[in-house]
């Protein structure tokens, strides 16, 4: 159907105020080769869309950190700024305060929050409730060819920012004991 929408020429309608359905259709295109082609395979179209999204995030992260090759410090500062507005990010919260906050919200599997690490200033911590126990996982910055990524599993799975990391673990358990289900609300104790 996508191919037909692309190949079929737009036919002008006589003074009709309605638009044709082909004008409202979207077609996945590949502009990488010498010749433009329509992407007909839905899984290929999805993988191209995901890759485009990732490269857009990398470019916007790069723009936030300044021109040229960003240093690890610049990159982590810009990434931190991105996460300050997220409801699951609690900033300078101690381990004990995180445990109290999660317990106060209810010891339900998947309740989580992210915070700055107090023991290692360049890292973050994911505090997560599983089987009525609060567990803490260090999120380490991983330098890969001058670009900083974040990882929970020693660099095996890398994310350009904490938003990406949280999105991933809300859909996949990965190395965690359970998926991230409910972010912990920011309340005053």
UniProtKB/TrEMBL annotation:
Zinc-finger listed as a keyword: no
All residue ranges annotated as the SH2 domain in the record: 88-184
Chain segments annotated as transmembrane: none
Gene3D superfamilies noted in UniProt: SH2 domain
Region feature Disordered, mapped onto this chain: 1-23
Alphabetized UniProt keyword annotations: Cytoplasm, Phosphoprotein, Receptor, SH2 domain
Keyword check for Phosphoprotein: yes
Compartment(s) of residence: Cytoplasm
GO cellular component terms listed in the entry, alphabetical order: cytoplasm; plasma membrane
Biological process annotations from GO: insulin receptor signaling pathway; negative regulation of insulin receptor signaling pathway
Protein name per Swiss-Prot or TrEMBL: Growth factor receptor-bound protein 14
């Amino acid at each position: 159907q996508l191919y037909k929408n692309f190949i079929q020429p737009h036919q002008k309608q006589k003074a009709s105020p309605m638009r044709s359905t082909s004008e409202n259709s979207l077609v996945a295109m590949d502009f990488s080769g010498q010749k433009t082609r329509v992407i007909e395979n839905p899984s290929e179209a999805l993988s191209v869309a995901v890759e485009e999204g990732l490269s857009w995030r990398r470019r916007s992260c790069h723009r936030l950190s300044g021109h040229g090759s960003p240093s690890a410090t610049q990159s982590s500062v810009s990434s931190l700024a991105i996460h300050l507005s997220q409801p699951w990010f609690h900033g300078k919260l101690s381990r004990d305060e995180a445990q109290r906050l999660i317990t106060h919200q209810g010891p339900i599997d998947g309740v989580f929050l992210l915070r700055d690490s107090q023991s290692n200033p360049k890292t973050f911590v994911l505090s997560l409730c599983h089987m009525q126990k609060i567990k803490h996982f260090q999120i380490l910055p991983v330098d890969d060819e001058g670009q900083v990524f974040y990882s929970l599993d020693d660099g095996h799975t890398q994310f350009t920012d904490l938003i990406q990391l949280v999105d991933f673990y809300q859909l996949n358990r990965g190395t965690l004991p359970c998926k991230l289900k409910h972010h912990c609300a920011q309340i005053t104790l």
